[in-house]
Every structure is written in structure tokens, then in C-alpha cells.
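On to our target:
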Amino acid sequence: MTWEAFHRRGEVLRRVIEVANERCDGRLPNDVAGVDAVFTDDVDLLGALQLRWHTALAGQIEASLADQPIDLPGAVVAAWRVTAADLPGVRAILDAHGEQPTSPEVAHVMETASAKERQMLALMAGLASRLDLDEQAARRGERLEREARAGVRLAAIDVPQPRGFLERLKAALAA
């Protein structure tokens, strides 16, 4: 992949995430300009969204553990909730495709990603070790995920879009 293609893919993915978060309907935003040019199929796009979710979740867990080093499971649950609030559309897409996969390949990708995520949750919460990242660790992580989901409603986030050049510049500098 060339440098230009890599950055084009990143730009399209950012727009896909924006649209997903606006809609929060669990459907892949295949209508976003450039999706067909930079993603080979739905599995490729789902994989990119899964990676974005996983990366955001891992970063949020690290930050949460730094703030709350005593209650590890509580910090992991809080981090999952913050990530779900930050990426509600992405979470809705991953949930929808995990519950009703559109193909056997999608089912396999979603099952594998879900198991790995749950193992990470258990590991970061101190409920598993790197030596026993197995089905039992995934079950422990699943319990943490269920706790995190309790009372969490994924909804579109209302982010006012800057209108003029000066407002866009201020928003970019603030980010």
C-alpha cells in the first residue's frame, strides 16, 4: 500500500466512523464516498472498524487504569463505557454484525475479534494472565462486557459542525 493510499484509506475510514456515529443504525455506511475504492469488501471495512474500536478501547483502558489502579475490573468497565460513548455507531455496527453476520466469513471474523477483545478485558482487569488467555478468560471478559453494557444505550452523538473557515480552524486547533 502506498503512502497516498494509506492516507486516503484513513480519511475514508474517519468519514465512515462519523457517518456511523451519526446514524447509529448498525448498518455499514457503504454509501460514503471512497469506500468502494479503499476497502475490498464488507469484511475489510468491518475489520478496519473492529481495529479502530479495539485500539480506542485499549487506549481508554490504559488511561482508566492510570486513574484507578486499585479497582481494575471497575476501571475496565468504565473504559468500555467511555469507548462506547465515543464510538456509538461503530459499536452498533460491530454488535449488529456479531449478532446477525452476513456471511460465514463475517461470522468467523466477528467471533474471533469478540473472543480476543474479551480476553483483553479479562487480562487488563487482572482476571487472567498472558499464560491463560483461553476460553475461560474470554468468559471472564464477557462478564465484564455485560456489566459495562448494563444501562448503556448507544445513541447518536450530537456534535455541532463548524460552518465557516474560522470556526473549522478553531475546531481543528482545539482537537
